[in-house]
Amino acid sequence: MSYDQVGLLASIPLLVGGFLELPMGVLAGQGRRRRRVILGGGILFVLTLLAVASAGSFAVLMAAFVAFYPASGAFVSLTQAKIMDAWPDRQAQVMVRWDLAGAIGAVAGPLLLTAVLASGGGWRAGYLVLAGIGALAWLGALLRREPAAGGHRAERAAEDTARKPWTARARDAAPEIGRALRDWGTLRWLLLIEVADLLVDVFTGFLALYLVDVAHLTPAAAALAIAVRLGAALAGDAALIVILERAGDLTVLRVSAAAAALLYPAFLLVPGVVPKLAVLAALSAATAAWYPVLQARLYGSLPGRSSVAVTLSSAAGLAGGLGPLAVGLVAQGFGLSWALAGLALVPVAVLLVPGRPAGPGPGEAGGHT
Fold first, then answer.
1. Whose CB among 165, 211, 278, 279 lies 3.0–4.6 Å from 267's, allowing a Cys bridge?
2. Is the dihedral of CA 332, 333, 335, 341 positive or negative?
3. How far apart are CA 15 and CA 30, in angstroms?
């Protein structure tokens, strides 16, 4: 492919597929209808991976990547919402386990590709392996037994809502979404998730370029830094499972933000490969708490309305896609070192925003947000 095709393949599926994913949460509803949407999304999830593996033209490849976003929204995002509904009093603890699974996948992905290439396969074989893994995950979701519905008033209400046509559910959901956006208790977590991501995924995207172009390290050292960051984040997620059983989620969030406020400038300023990698590892472990705690708080601010949380997260994710563009524009105008230096404000925002009083949230019952 040409460079412009690569750029289109990176941006068009994010925008178009993300837009198609937007109504997924509210239209799927709850109960048995949501389960059917999850299973249907899983089938489409596997089919899109197979389509990528067998694509013979750029158009087919683009269509498969676009379809992957709503498929992932139905299969993955709705599963996350279902888990949050099942554990309303332990959402932070459960979310960090979810995040740990994602971190394991982030580390296993390059290893899987390396193994496929070492065995003589190509990128198509890699996607075929992913399709097989996805099929196993779908089978697990299919075989998982669901609790009998109708035993509680909330369950009966969910089933009544699920029987409504999708147009009626969309009309009913619009006021719910509007109320959620007017509620600071929900909006702050939604905004903070995207702000925090600037020092997580967005920073990771520019990390290798920064180390080579600004810190003047070798490409091999930059590749090692990416591995260190992923491994340290994985270790941070694993440690967080134990920590959240002993400390409140907001306490953990504040401590990690305070640590990141010191570690991130240190990473930018410290010279030498080994010191930079050491500080990077500590920073990556510290920020591992941000997504699971903030996402759990978002669900906790919308009790019984996880479908609204899914839709709002999808919308915020589309807006958050401007983050890499903003960093890139600043880097183009003022240099990458100044663009990344501006991210030092992110841990300050994480420290300050949760300080306002509100009701108790997940993992810190009786506390204040």
1. 279
2. negative
3. 26
164 vs 92, more confident:
92
- Write out pLDDT tens, residues 105-128: 888 888 888 888 888 888 899 999
Using the structure block, give the residue that is written with the tokens 């009544």.
160
Q: CATH number of the domain at 1-164, please?
A: 1.20.1250.20
Residue 247 burial (C-beta neighbours within 10 Å; 0-12, 13-18, 19+): middle
The pLDDT tens digits of the residues spanning 207-257 come to: 988 998 888 888 888 888 988 999 999 999 999 999 998 888 899 999 999
Q: What is the mean pLDDT of the chain?
A: 82
Give the C-alpha separation, 70 to 79, whole Å.
Answer: 13
Q: Which two tokens stand for residue 369?
A: 């947000």
At the top level of CATH, the class of 184-300+321-354 is: mainly alpha
- A 10 A CB-CB count for 20 gives 17
CATH 1.20.1250.20 in the chain is located at: 1-164
**Which two tokens mark 242?**
């134990």
